[in-house]
Amino acid sequence: MTYATGGTPVDQTDKTDEIRGTAQGTAPVPLSVLDLVTVGAGRTATDALHTSVNLSRLAESRGFHRYWIAEHHSMPGVASSSPAVILAHLAAHTTRIRLGSGGVMLPNHAPLVIAEQFGTLEAMAPGRVDLGLGRAPGTDGATAAALRRTDGLNEGADDFPQQLAELIRFLDDDFPDGHPYARIHAVPGPIQSTSPGGVQSPHRPPVWLLGSSGFSARLAGVLGLPFAFAHHFSAQNTIPALDLYRESFRPSAVLDEPYALIGVSALATDDEKEARRQVLAAALNMVRLRTGRPGLVPTPEEAEAHVFSPLEREFIDSWNSNVIHGTADEVRSGLDELQKRTGADELMITGNAHSGDVRLRSYELIADAYGLPKAQA
Question: Which residues make Cβ contacts (< 8 Å) with residue 86, sequence separation at least 6?
């Protein structure tokens, strides 16, 4: 099967420059941030979003390359159900860092709506918006059915390549003559440049494919698109998926060679014991989510007092074996080893903890460990 990418965008600048980052300090590759906008027990969604603003500012000032928001639904401890809305808020509080979705779950939405939302974001923050797309629901089956207004949940995933092609054509405004959507335009978008007196930005959000298996890896390679792999919750598939992406890659107008980032769960604290306390709480939150009891992220004290069953303890040990945590030096060593082992072109760090202050401190410590630029007064 051949998947069309929708042709060449109107007046595009060098798209590779909008994808590839530059490593800062002693980091082996560019470092970025993935934010789930987590809500801790005793905190509100307003508190979590305030942390996101502060974290995006910190990431920008310390030389992190991009800041992505993940789409999740029906999870009390994750307030990122509307990435485009949150990204608009962050765009108003930052000036340079790339902002994007990590990702928007394409089967949950009409492609035209996504094109309109991210065209609007691009108009708000020209030249620094990424559109990362996934094919999973980002939630449970019942919630996905409510989002998609259908019980055929596999239908959206199976149609993902066609939905992707449609979205890219809306972004580029290049449906062929005779197509049912040829006279439909995503606004803001390229149609404005061809209207009388129209002037349009040379940018449009670069499209990334996200995945935790081989499907999106292969599709991203075939289309010559950048690829983001969810190592933070599918570590066993990381190297096979990256190998498949690189083997499948075909040069395109977007990239001349593969570019892959991986999402990494990492938390740095001032001492190793505190890191263990924090990741235990985050892991307990995952236990509850995986057993159908999603809630707010518990405090470390609650996690320490929890009596884990043998199955829960097994899950905790397995989950935390994939979380790089400890002192700043320990986290730096773990990130370095992971990048060397996978050959990732970029590391996107997600640091989950009950407290926003702990999350902010973690990114500060990681930045210091790599000698990233200091925040300007």
Answer: 37, 49, 52, 69, 80
